[in-house]
Amino acid sequence: MVASDEDVDSLFAAALAHGATTVTEPNDAPHGGRNACVADFDGHWWNLDSYPGA
């Protein structure tokens, strides 16, 4: 979990710049907040999520 919607976008971009691949593009979640997912070099998925009020 990250602090803000903007953090989801910036961490997603940073991960791609360091060789991660896109699993899910950043998008607005139905419950509020934002999420995205990337895969690292070993294929592990990393979810980037922000939640309003967290």
* CATH architecture label: 2-Layer Sandwich
Q: Give the integer mean of the pLDDT values.
A: 95
Biggest sheet, spatial arrangement of strands: 1-2-3
Number of strands: 3
DSSP summary: helix tally? 1
Radius of gyration, in angstroms, nearest whole number: 11 Å
Outline the low-pLDDT stretches: none
Strand-and-helix sequence, N→C? HEEE
Helix content: 10-25%
Distance between the termini: 9 Å
Please describe the biggest sheet, giving its number of strands, its sense, and whether it closes into a barrel.
3 strands, antiparallel
Q: How does the helix and strand content classify structurally?
A: alpha+beta
The tally of structural domains comes to: 1
Shape: elongated
| CATH-assigned fold name | Signal recognition particle alu RNA binding heterodimer, srp9/1
Q: Quaternary status of these chains?
A: single chain
Content of β-strand:
35-45%
Quick one: CATH class?
Alpha Beta
SSE order and pairing:
Blueprint: H1 5-17, E1 21-28, E2 34-39, E3 45-50
Antiparallel strand pairs: 1-2, 2-3
Provide structural commentary.
The structure is a single chain. The chain has 54 residues and is of the alpha+beta class. The chain has one domain (5-50): 2-Layer Sandwich (Signal recognition particle alu RNA binding heterodimer, srp9/1), CATH 3.30.720. It is 24% helix and 37% strand. It has 1 helix and 3 strands; from the N terminus they run H-E-E-E. It has one helix spanning 5-17; strands at residues 21-28, 34-39, 45-50. Strands 1-2-3 form a 3-stranded antiparallel sheet, with helices on one face. Strand 1 (21-28) and strand 2 (34-39) form a beta hairpin.
